[in-house]
Amino acid sequence: GAVVSQHPSWVICKSGTSVKIECRSLDFQATTMFWYRQFPKQSLMLMATSNEGSKATYEQGVEKDKFLINHASLTLSTLTVTSAHPEDSSFYICSARDPGQGAYGYTFGSGTRLTVV
Amino acid sequence: AQTVTQSQPEMSVQEAETVTLSCTYDTSESNYYLFWYKQPPSRQMILVIRQEAYKQQNATENRFSVNFQKAAKSFSLKISDSQLGDTAMYFCAFMLSGTSYGKLTFGQGTILTVHP
Question: pLDDT at residue B26 above 80?
Answer without folding.
Answer: yes
